[in-house]
Design goal:
The protein is an alpha+beta fold. It has helices at residues 2-28, 49-52, 78-85, 159-162, 164-167, and strands spanning 55-61, 68-74, 93-106, 109-125, 137-138, 141-147, 150-154. A hairpin with a 2-residue loop joins strand 6 (141-147) and strand 7.
Length: 187
């Protein structure tokens, strides 16, 4: 009987250690936004972010020139970290994809849906000021803009000129419109 218990305890120890080792690299790489950044501070748009990054939330922007849907994705683990700490971790990546919209009358009412990406905004949380003097880094974030006509070319030149104006109302929440991201709240 004692050999059986010892064997079970040993087996459980191996299983728990293996499970911990399997999850450890993931937790260390959860906030790896700086992997998207080159030595000069240029931020790349993450590949397959729609598949790999959870959705934080969606905004619908009603505009007489054309309505938009803004869908924001975050690097894995970002929402959990935010819920625990009330802020985004250093290296967190946010990707906001801005779509045009289409609509039609359906049996459920006037329905609107996203159609055709217009731009992508990519932000990397930077608590440590990794790129001082770089005009795309400041106020605790790295900022990037990609347009649909050149989806692989970052076109922002200065976050204060190209990005910050839209974020001024969100200054009190670290420049992010967190009220539109329900997954950041308590479960």
């Amino acid at each position: 009987m004692m050999d059986f218990r010892l064997a079970m305890v040993s087996l459980m120890f191996v299983a728990l250690t293996t499970a911990h080792l399997q999850t450890e690299p993931q937790s260390k790489s959860t906030f790896n936004g700086f992997d998207l950044v080159d030595k000069a501070g240029n931020i790349g748009k993450p590949k397959d972010f729609r598949d790999r990054y959870p959705t934080l939330g969606t905004y619908t922007v009603l505009d007489p020139k054309g309505n938009q849907m803004h869908i924001t994705y975050s690097s894995p683990g970002a929402a959990e970290y935010y819920r625990k700490n009330g802020k985004f971790a250093d290296g967190t990546v946010l990707v906001k994809e801005v779509f045009g919209t289409e609509h039609a009358q359906m049996t459920t009412g006037d329905a609107n849906w996203a159609s055709g990406t217009k731009v992508w905004f990519v932000m990397v949380k930077d608590e440590k000021g990794h790129f001082p003097g770089n005009p795309l880094w400041g106020n605790g974030w790295g900022w990037a803009l990609y347009k649909s006509d050149a989806p692989d070319k970052q076109v922002a030149t200065d976050f204060k000129k190209d990005c910050l104006g839209c974020h001024i109302p969100a200054k009190g929440t670290d420049w992010i419109y967190v009220q539109g991201y329900p997954v950041l709240g308590a479960k």
